[in-house]
């Protein structure tokens, strides 16, 4: 079945994160985000795409800081509350009953109960006609001890990090499961004789 080109997100599973920010007057904001990705392992930058009318984008522009919270699948209802279009003067931590978690390097708090927290500082904004690409540098990264293995990897079966697949009618919330094959990085760099 052929799909129109703008349906590309229907065929590409995306992560779901909650981005927490504060305005310059200190109002807390949290918003779900799917268009976000690390830029090339093992670098420390990430990029997110934002429509121009987003409090999140305004706050990042104003303060240069944000936290990428990785919610467990049990946080779907909070995610959906934060997806509502509240005016900028509304504290979305209060609306969604989120417990703030003090950050280590940046001013915006993280969200308690997340699987992991990436504290980020703005590196560059690439402004296009309808959207902006925000490049951030991860300046502090923590995984919740509850979901971390001894090596600091995420145990995805207990953490159940949230992800999504778009459809024509809405978002199907999903979560990654182990596909039964582990590939050490070294295996990928073996050169053919
Ligand atoms: C699962 C999910 C993923 C989303 N991903 C994005 C995204 O990648 N970029 C974007 O601009 N908006 C995205 N949105 C919409 C924003 O989260 C939503 O408009 C929110 O109200 C913005 O809040 P803010 O104005 O407080 O920043 C997404 C919404 C949901 C539910």
TrEMBL record:
Q: Which UniProt keywords apply?
A: Flavoprotein, FMN
Cofactor(s) the protein requires to work: FMN
Name the UniProt record assigns to this protein: Flavin reductase family protein
Keyword DNA repair present in the record's keywords: the answer is: no
Q: Which GO terms describe its molecular function?
A: FMN binding
- Name the species this protein comes from: Methanofollis tationis
Q: Which family does it belong to?
A: Belongs to the flavoredoxin family.
Name the InterPro entries on file: Flavin_Rdtase-like_dom, Split_barrel_FMN-bd
Recorded superkingdom:
Archaea
Pfam families associated with the record: Flavin_Reduct (PF01613)
For whether the record's keyword set contains Flavoprotein, the answer is yes
Cited PANTHER family: FLAVIN REDUCTASE LIKE DOMAIN-CONTAINING PROTEIN, FLAVOPROTEIN OXYGENASE
- Which stretches make up the Flavin reductase like domain? 12-149
